[in-house]
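Subgroup meeting minutes
Present: P.N., E.W., G.H.
Scribe: E.W.

1. P.N. recapped why we're keeping a running log of single-chain structure predictions: easier to compare across weeks, and new members can see raw inputs and outputs side by side.
2. G.H. added today's entry (725 aa).
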Amino acid sequence: MRLPVLAAAGALALAGCASSSPTEAPDSMTTDSATADILQTNPLLQEWTGPYGGVPAFDRMALDDLEPAIEAGMAAHLAEIDAIAQNPEPPTFENTIVAMERAGKPIERAFTYYGIWSSNLSSPEFREIQGRLAPRLAEYSSKVTQNAALFDRVRAVYEDRESLGLRDDEVRLVELVYDGFARNGATLEGDAKERYAAIDQRLAELHTRFGNNVLADEEGYVTYITQSQLSGLPASFVQAAAAAAEERGRPGEYAITNTRSSMDPFLTYSDERDLRERVWRTYYDRGDNGGEHDNNALIAEILALRDERVGLLGYDNYASWRLENRMAETPERALDLLMAVWPAAVARVEEEVADMQAVADERGDGVTIEPWDYRYYAEKVRQDRYALDSDEVKQYLQLDNLTDALHYVAGELFGYAFEPVPEGSVPVFHPDVTVYEVTDRESGDHVGLWYLDPFARPGKRSGAWATTYRSHTTFDGLETVLASNNSNFVKGAPGEPVLISLDDAETLFHEFGHALHFLASNVAYPTLDNGVRDYTEFQSQLLERWLLTDPVIERYLVHVETGEPIPDELVQKIRRAATFNQGFATTEYLASSLVDMKLHTMENPGDVDPDAFERQYLAEIGMPSELVMRHRTPHFAHVFSSEGYATGYYGYLWADVLTSDAAEAFAEAPGGFYDAEMADRLVRYLFAPRNAIDPGEAYRLFRGRDADIAPLMRDRGFPVPEGTE
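Output recorded in log:
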């Protein structure tokens, strides 16, 4: 069922979906005349036209149209739902489950545009609209999931599912739809049902405020420096910082923006320790600055409401409810995995800090390593131990070349070809966006479109993500995929190539893995395109492994000035340093995952002081003082700006266990990472089915067994626990 996904408006950037279909109301649907008029005239609700099965009219986006579009779309969808619920015919798979899959296409189209404003083009005006819509969207969702007559029909089909002659994927669809109702209050009655809906509305408001507060702190805190403060910074970073300052009306200065893509390289290279501390504090204090954008009180209320809501359903805590239908199944299993890795990660941090302190002492710097020193001295150790200069590597990582590398890998593994669409044939929401047609190389058949939006700008949320504007379905005729990758790389000066770090290059491959997961889908129904959270990161993490495969190195990693391929010696340095700084990377991630899980399993979570809890809990588990959580609680948007990753941040590690295990399977294959038989199994079992089969079963079909933790520990250079081989 589509609605629970759509109602989580804060998560649209991760899982947006829209379809091309007529906006006319079906005969069985009754809407008032005002709604009917808006359905016919509002550009954000109109059927997508043009080539490639229709495309979003991003050139017709007007913010004034958004609120009426969402309101009319909700009303139209609720009328469709009511017609399904009141159908006098006995409930069947077709007239109930399939009818629900078919419903709501106008509102999905409106949500595509909503997602663009929310993630790519946010503004104060949009945020006002978003704040008004959030509780109404939650109410709309509740009207579906708590529609008793509709749930009775769904339950009837669910109870008879094994006797209806359905395909396996259709049985799974019925089970997922039923579960979506049962886990979201449909079984409640009376006051409990009303309270559940009220909590949903309030949470929608709080999630929206949380995300907007983080964005406000990202936009509102920019560190400007002068030429005399550039010591240690690479030329490419200096050029980008100058361009960012000029864009903000400060020519002649250099802007360090409050995003990871700007903060991380500054902390890595700047010789100005006081400035490193200022930039570090600005970044890690997002949402924690006091005043109108402080998120601490919101967190306590969110936690209390989530706990109360699942209590109405009979669960002990939010995490137990959330993980019930994930691969982990229980918070205990997720915590067991996190804590299995934690001691080795912390031990490695101690080694890394000792190495960095030795470098600082040898240089006579007179410092004790603090969090704002970690990246800086880690880079010195890297250069000393591996003779590996991150900025030297960066000269071989041009964004345009890496984009071509993505297409090459997709061609070799999936048989896809990527070609830019003719100029002007597909509308875009910003000039930075490039659109490619994706086709099957062998048949020439159209697969979908791929939108690439790579650069940071005001109003765009930080980080990197993938989304779809339309997902693959066949139940009402073939619908092809419109996929998008979005990043926050710092744009260089006009005409200058954009160079990115090795970490950013891995992220580029990671997010493209999500896009390939969308494009490869062969599912029939929209609900089956919704992934299982601790599984969907696996496919994207796995694709990172192709960045340093020989064909990519030889063809695409060439020097920005000379065009010469990256030297073998430098490649070997990168590979030897693959486990370098894994203590830092693993520990900062695990700390965020553990705090996420603990906050959602505690008693009386509404009484929590997030700052105090964060410090106390991390001290209890031995968090090293030289680093902090990757996402501190007050800006942990994954967890508190929506419910998409709430108690789910552990899923990256869960997926990484699968990733390391699957990567060893490719490494052992006769053709290595480009082995044709392995590539076929990869697409057939791990990408194409999406959620049409159980993720655990899909992995066993690919690998022949369950995944083991030992490859993960080897990948990170940690000791392999006994009994895991």
